[in-house]
Amino acid sequence: MKYLFKIMSFILVMLCFTLAIVASELNGPIIVYPDEGITVRFEENTSLSSAEMQAIADSIVHDSPIPQTYAFCWLLGHDKITETVTATHHKVDTYDPRCLLEIYLITTCSRCDYYSEEFDSSGYISCCPED
């Protein structure tokens, strides 16, 4: 009976671990825009919520501004966090390397809706095979 309890405990731990990995992959920090051929990737350990990531990805892909109100940060000051976000434009060129990778530095505030987007660099990468 003692061994059965240990085996069941081990199986339960492995099942929870597997489900956690699958859940993190399903809610991963990647947003794909298939119509535009663009993939936006966030840092693996991002502190942004899924709604914030969606708004940032929309801002990068559609070049639309994010509205900001700043709340009480004029009194308390900002608590800024800077993260790296990449946007991969697939099949931009005809020949390999044909995908354009753009790197942005995104600064947000954990206390308000402050947002700053700074283009860092870009370059071509090999990610899509030639047609």
Describe this structure in words.
It is a single chain. Strand 4 and strand 5 form a beta hairpin. By secondary structure, this protein is an alpha+beta fold. It is 32% helix and 31% strand. It has a five-stranded antiparallel sheet with strand order 1-2-3-4-5, covered by helices on one side. The protein is flat. It has helices spanning 2-26, 50-62, 73-76, and strands at 30-33, 38-41, 80-89, 99-109, 115-125.
Q: What is the 3D form?
A: flat
Q: Please indicate the percent range of residues in DSSP E strands (runs of 2 or more).
A: 25-35%
Q: Summarize model confidence as the mean pLDDT.
A: 81
Number of helices: 3
Q: Structural class, please?
A: alpha+beta
Features:
alpha+beta, five-stranded antiparallel beta sheet, 131 residues
Secondary-structure map:
Blueprint: H1 2-26, E1 30-33, E2 38-41, H2 50-62, H3 73-76, E3 80-89, E4 99-109, E5 115-125
Quick summary:
The protein is α+β, with helices and mostly antiparallel strands and 131 residues long. Helices cover 32% and strands 31% of the residues.
